[in-house]
Amino acid sequence: MRSATPLFFALVLSTPSLVLAHGSMTTPPSRVYTCAQGNIENPTDPACKAATQAAGTQQFYDWMSINQANANSNHTAVVPDGKLCGGGNPTFRGLDLARADWQATPIAPDANGRFEFVFRGTAPHATKDWIFYVTREGWDPNQPLRWADLYEFCRLGNVALSSGGVYRLNCPLPQSRGRHVIYNVWQRSDSTEAFYTCVDVVFPGGSTSWVDEGPVTGQNALATGTTVTLRLFNAAGNDVERIEHVVAAGQGAAAEWPYQFALAVNARSQRARVGRLDGAGNIDPVRAASGNRVYTRSADNLNHQIDIRAPDTGVQPPVAAISASATTVTGAGSVTLSATGSSNPSNAALTYNWRIVSGTGTLSSTNAATTTLQLAAPPQDQTVTVAVTVSNSGGSDDESVAIAHRASGGGTYDYVYPAGIGSYVPGTTIVKGSDGLRYRCRPFPEGQWCNIDSAFHYAPGTGANWQDAWVRL
Question: Which residues form the signal peptide (predicted)?
């Protein structure tokens, strides 16, 4: 490999790196681009200042580099809930702050109901797809952004780079109203790498009157006579409204009782609605085990709780418990999970409902007392959370367990970092990092960063900018 010139090294070590960057939305401006256009070292914008206090200034010098090197279209797997705006990259964690004062840009559709987004490509790449999401009506900007808060409204293929080094992305705009976040994903086709962008916007029509409080999920059928209660609380924790619904005969199926409950709430509540919110602001119940959500009036600032009380049969509900054969797995493997230790005071017949709450894996059974969690070797560390609902005729109880799933660090390597630095070959050299995992130096030109002797920035797996130089194996 040709060695870099002294001038090259001087620039790298004295100024934040912009050479191997990639891009961000400029029309409307993304959250990170907006902050980068101000005084990065001493921001006056309150949200940008808070982001700097949380994560430093490097995130704004690197405004074009919110990426995941091994996304490969598995975006929900590599970018966790609450970390979407930073792309799951800790360097950009300041962008994930849940605030209502991020600078938002008014946007409106043209005569054809469309809008041209402009993405500045500082380092163009071959494209698999551009995906646009928008927050749902009732989304709360003061809560961490989740994938469940979004729905896709536009997907484009390999759009050609326009003059000026920008991508012009023409999409139909959703019929949203008021303040929202548009979330953009740019997936490369020549690499597994993807880039992530949050754009704060204001659609015509003012602010929405409803806040999405969460789902009503019919995980199990309910016995006739079961009481389902919606409780609404104010900021002090006091009850302000209670709506009770008693399940009638023939209406206890998992897809039916949430629908009947929603009808009851919508007929009697002065402060809440249950159902599915459409683009026109209507909230209508749906017959489904999932799909109905609780909405409260935004001006009321309420919290909610749904209580389910089984009919008095003299049977005490169980207390769920999970035992796991392991709580840490490296690479591919499996974990046996058992709920046989759940207490059952009345010795009544029990049913089980297993589900994966977060992370990626498969369950051998969802309705047996014991199940096996199968785990494929992950591209990077993840936490897989599995929950079980244990039920009898007297009620139900939930329990969950978190499994730490580690990427495998096995295999051969050329050096233990930082030994050999200065002689690493882009695209070829494999080193063992301080975390015990293996990393390959990125191909040229990104691979130039591998040989820079700055562990703070480029130590594989731990440096602030390690993903610019290395690929975890």
Answer: 1-21
